[in-house]
Design goal:
By secondary structure, this protein is α/β, with parallel strands linked by helices. The chain has 15 helices and twelve strands.
């Protein structure tokens, strides 16, 4: 028998695989699946960004190797964004690195700073790369129930006290994927004070900082005086400008940590294709009305989802930010767990969602619903859901006995 390679063996089971398999099978049979699972924006990239990409790609010199840490103009554009949005001054030469999306940035930061056996504190549930990047690097994970207040920080302090060796870093992510939880500047201030006292690095992910639905834009941890002594922050253009496939993100903050990331990246890649970097600079430096339009689109979808699913019999707390709703499984189906309930929705309602268990053990009992279908399709999903719920417990018993469900239990 051939054993798995060491790093592959350390990776947890990919919970989404079963749901994706059922979704693909249903589509192969001709089912019209309304896919609210993967957070893959359906909106087009703003035209002025596409135009800059087309203009630049026509220049043969841009087809050469690019700069691993990002072309200078792009790093300056990201520093300018932090200045106008957060009032944070950054040196684009030493405190900004362009990454192939925030996911790659997180994974390579883990490679840069982690030794085998290091302990990393991670909220649970959380976006998988916050954990998987460190697992691949050989670290040990300590999960903390996700929160945004004093209780979470007390849990951090207890974890440091009772972990051997002492934890190296703390991951924070607000607005959160999957829970849509946000954090205040007061929370960040307390987190920075705690990190300095306990000797922790903070890795902050604010990929959804521009997708918010009230009058209080989410802050950056780097707004806290002295935060740059201990913190690096990751951002992405994927959701802000509808550029997920362009794979463009950033890591900014502490000079020593950014330097370590830049050095690792210099061994692994030559950076994104130069025309993508030029177009990303145009996104950051250009008109920002497109960001507000994207934000309002998600807000309308959120409101329709909450209203129409509520009338169908599923009460969903309205998320304050992100392109996701974190929805408790309806009581009659809670005993199934998030994976079986997600499979059930595909089989009986033609709706795909992401099981909460895929984001960590404390995600059980919830599913993540992505706002990646238009308003008509969301209402269509609500009608299918209402029909499914009206079938009652007798149908629930029959569905659990269905071969496609039963075989995977």
């Amino acid at each position: 028998m051939i054993e798995e390679f060491h790093r592959i063996k350390r990776l947890p089971l990919y919970v989404f695989a079963e749901v994706n398999r059922l979704k693909a099978g249903a589509r192969a049979r001709g089912a019209d699946i309304i896919d609210l699972g993967m957070g893959n924006p359906d909106l087009p990239t703003p035209q002025h960004i596409v135009d800059k990409m087309v203009e630049t790609v026509a220049k043969p010199r841009t087809h050469r190797y690019s700069a691993s840490k990002g072309i200078p103009g792009l790093r300056r554009a990201q520093a300018a964004y932090y200045d106008r949005r957060f009032g944070v001054k950054l040196n684009p030469e030493t405190q900004v690195v362009a990454t192939l999306g925030s996911k790659e940035g997180f994974a390579n930061m883990a490679q840069a700073i982690t030794a085998p056996g290091d302990v990393i504190l991670v909220p649970n549930p959380t976006y998988p790369i916050h954990e998987f990047g460190f697992i691949i690097s050989g670290a040990a994970m300590r999960h903390l129930p996700a929160g945004n207040g004093d209780e979470f920080l007390r849990a951090v302090e207890r974890a440091v006290k009772h972990s051997i060796p002492k934890p190296l870093a703390l991951v924070l992510s607000y607005p959160s994927n999957p829970t849509a939880m946000t954090a205040s500047i007061e929370f960040y201030t307390a987190a920075v004070d705690l990190a300095k006292r306990l000797g922790l690095i903070i890795l902050s992910d604010i990929a959804y900082a521009e997708i918010y639905f009230d009058d209080n834009p989410p802050p950056s941890i780097l707004q806290v005086p002295g935060a740059i002594d201990v913190a690096v922050e990751f951002t992405s253009l994927s959701k802000t400008y509808n550029m997920p496939g362009w794979r463009m993100g950033f890591a900014v903050g502490n000079e020593r940590l950014i330097g370590a990331l830049a050095r690792v990246k210099s061994y692994l890649d030559y950076g994104a294709f130069t025309p993508i970097q030029v177009a990303a600079s145009a996104a950051l430096n250009g008109p920002q009305d497109c960001v507000e339009e994207i934000r309002q689109t998600y807000k309308r979808r959120r409101d329709i989802l909450v209203e129409s699913f509520g009338r169908a019999g599923w009460d969903i707390p309205p998320p304050p930010a992100t392109m996701f709703a974190w929805a408790p499984i309806p009581e009659p189906y809670r005993h199934l767990g998030s994976v079986e309930f997600s499979k059930l929705l595909i089989e009986k309602a033609d709706i795909a969602v992401s099981p909460g268990l895929g984001f960590g053990e404390y995600g059980e009992g919830f599913v993540r619903i992505a706002l990646v279908e238009n308003e008509h399709r969301i209402r269509q999903a609500a009608r299918s859901l209402k029909k499914f719920f009206s079938q009652g417990t007798e149908t629930l018993h029959n569905v659990i006995s269905h071969p496609a469900i039963k075989a995977s239990r």
